[in-house]
Every structure is written in structure tokens, then in C-alpha cells.
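Now for today's protein.

===
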Amino acid sequence: MNYHIVDNLTSAIRLQDIPQVEYAALYEDLKVRLAQERYHVAHYFATPEQNRLRFYIIVLDDADHKAMLASFAMEYYDDVALPSLTALHPAMHIFEREITELYNVEFDSMPWNKPVRFPFDRRNRNSTIDTYPFYSIEGDSLHEVNVGPIHAGIIEPGAFRFVCNGESVLHLEIALGYQHRGVEQEFSATDNRLRQTLLAESIAGDSAVSHATTFAHTIEKLSGKTPSEALETERAVALELERMALHIADTGALSTDVGYQLGQVACEALRTMTINTTQAWCGNRFGKGLIRPSGSNKPLTAAKRDMILKNVEEIARRYDEVKEDIKSSPTLLARFEQCGIVAKSDMQRIGGVGMAARASGLTRDIRTSHPYGVFADKIRHESIIKRQGDVMSRLTVRCNEVLQSAKYIGELLEGYTPTESMPRPDYETALAPDSLAFSLVEGWRGEICHVAITDSEGKIATYKVKDPSLHNWLALALAVRGEGISDFPICNKSFNLSYCGYDL
């Protein structure tokens, strides 16, 4: 099988250098390759090219730290069904479902070809949330519980259909994305680089730094610019502050759901201190405005560096006390341990990523497998792994990553002298024409992948985004099987997945 092999630091790739193969050959290769733990797919999508569809796939080799690119094409109105990779490897379901929804491509033996996002330009206009084919089970002792699509809180719409036997959950199906936002189309609808950056920050509000960093890396590769060491250092600090803030917030949310008020209020205070540190740096609690292509409008000063170091040290010290209190509480352990288990084998089959995968013993961590920025040279990252795959494991990974992030921030900023010559953002440099660039970043939820394809004039023709939630929502559905329905809230919070990161 012919792939174009690169790594996560590679600059833009000319489209003509990406091998165009026969689908049959790709299918046979992936049938075997994706059965191995070292491989998984970062992205797989189709895009119109003149009078045909061209498909691109990016396969990651986590052991050799490489990415393998290939493509194939089919006539736009070709009615030949492609053999489904999902039938062999369930992790491929989200990609094949989207391709079918957008372009009406059929996949033979596809076990779950249901809508992903109900976009306005979907091929089947009769496909709506009202006709979504929820799975059902017949039985006199069974009943269904519907949650959503309108939630009592402020989160986006999502329909959750439980099939229960008494209080025990037999099956959960989650339908999302039916207020399709069209974010990906907006990237190609404008040539304004600043607007594109603002779009990246808005993909998932709680991951503004993560997605903006992934976008910035993608644009820098297309423009042939290498970010300075100082710029990558400050981006890494922002990313780790974001990781700390959200893991602390989720610790508090889990405490809330089991009535542990001390953990709740302590984490609320520490999360506020963390995001206020980011706000003191750039003027926004979520880091919006901080990450920009090729430069920064908010470079660190010596005073802000010292402020971050002082605050992070205090946050880590106090959060460590919360962590120890949780570990020593029999009541909390009784709720969290052996609840919401997702086995490593299941996590691998569905393509799970990020801290949820690592809590099940599956080492999926871009910082180690496909390093970028400071993780490519300054910091040798060691992933935090747990193997039980339960709520407690996911909480423990969060707790340890908070302290690890604080350590990384200290290592990056101790002895760091802010530069007065930090470049300003670049919104004007032309992008390489007829090229593809991709970037991978480990956000606090997990693996983020952005892919940009330019046309002959160097304008973005196709932009694709993969948020870790695209894979991990299915992990939540597996986690609640066999659990009491009253345990759904803590299972849900232990993942804390994104609605808007899914609804692109």
C-alpha cells in the first residue's frame, strides 16, 4: 500500500504528492492495519473535485510517530457501494456516516449508517431528528427514557434514548448535531485570516486555546512559517492552563453529583483562580485572543510570568489536597469505583482518544505519539495511564494531569525571559496553492485534528475539524450499560464531552 509518510511537524504537502490509490487496496490494507493498537485514523473525509469526489485519509502510526496519507477518487454519481470499514473497525463509523450524509456514498454492510449532523446541504432532506432511527428493544419488562433534546441547562441540544430494565440501563443511543452550525464551511467561505482564527476559537468554547493552536499550526504550515521558540513556549503555557482549568472544573462537577460539597466549592474556587490567571494574561478567561498565527498580541511580560508561576503553584498545592481528600473518602470511592467501566478493548474498537482512553489503559496521547511545539524538543511527556476504565480512573487521570500541567508550566517559565521582539500575528502571508496541511494537538479532552486543503490560488477550499468528542460520545454510551440510570450523571461528567465540538 502506497502512503505519503510525514510527521506532525511537516509543512504543507502538495496534493500531487499524496498517492491516489484504489479503494480496494486501501480497504485491504486498513482491514489488517487498524486491528493493531499502534494505528488509528486521525481523519477521513471526502471533498468535491471538479466532477468527482476525492477522499483523503490520514492514518497515524503511534509507535513510529508518523502520519500516513493517501487518497482515492470516485465519480460523483457512481452508485457502486464501497465495502464498509466500520463493519470491521467500529472507530470508522463517524467518518463513513458523515460521508454518506453529505454525498450519499453507500458503504456496503455498514452497520450504523445514521445521520451525524443534519447539515443544510445533506443529500437526504427527509432525514430529520423527528425521523432519526433510534435503536429499540422489545420486551414487557423494558421501558424507554428520553432525555432532551432541549436540556434544562445551557448546553446544546442532544437527544439521549435509554432502554432500561427497571433501573438498569440496557442501551443508550445519543443523537447530536441537529442544529448543525456549519463551522467547517465558514472557514472556506472567507479569506479573512482573522475571522478564520475567531472561528477556530469558537469550535468548542471550553477548548478555545486548543483549537486555536491547532488552527495556527495548520496555517503556519501552509504559509511556510515556523513559530519561534518563545511563541511555542507561551502557547504551551496557555494550553496547560486550559487543561488545568477544565480538569479542576470537572472534579468539582463530579463532586456536585455525589453531594460532596467540600470538593465542589474548593474546585469552583480553584477553577476560578485558574481562568482568572488566563484572563489577567490576555483579557479573556478562556484564552480567546491569545493564540494567533505566527505571532501574538498578548506576549508575556516578566510581571505576568511571575504572576502565572505564583498562581499555578498555589493552585496545584490546594488541588492536591482536594485530590487526597477524594482518595481517602469511602463514600466517594463507593460511587466512583467500578462504575461506568469501558474496557481497553472497547475503547480501542471505537477509536477512543484522550484522557478517557488513557483511563482505560489505551495510550492515545498526541504529546507522546506525535509531538508538537515544546513536546517535540523541550518536554519529554509521559502519559498518565490508568487501567480500570471506570469513573474513578477518569477522575484520577484528571487529578494527576492537573498536577502534571502545573509542573510543565513551572518548567517552561522558570528562567524564561519574555522577549520584547515577539512577532505580531500574520494574517496576510499567502498560503501554498494546491496543498494540504494538517495539525494534531492534545487538547484537554484529547486528540484534535485540523486539515486544510487549498485551491490553485492558495485559498482554503476545504477545512475539516475533528474534536475528540466525535469518538468519545460512543464511549459514554458503552459506559452506562448495566449501570443504574441514576449513575448516568456521574458517568456523563466523568467524560464531559462537547456538544458543539461534535456539531461542526
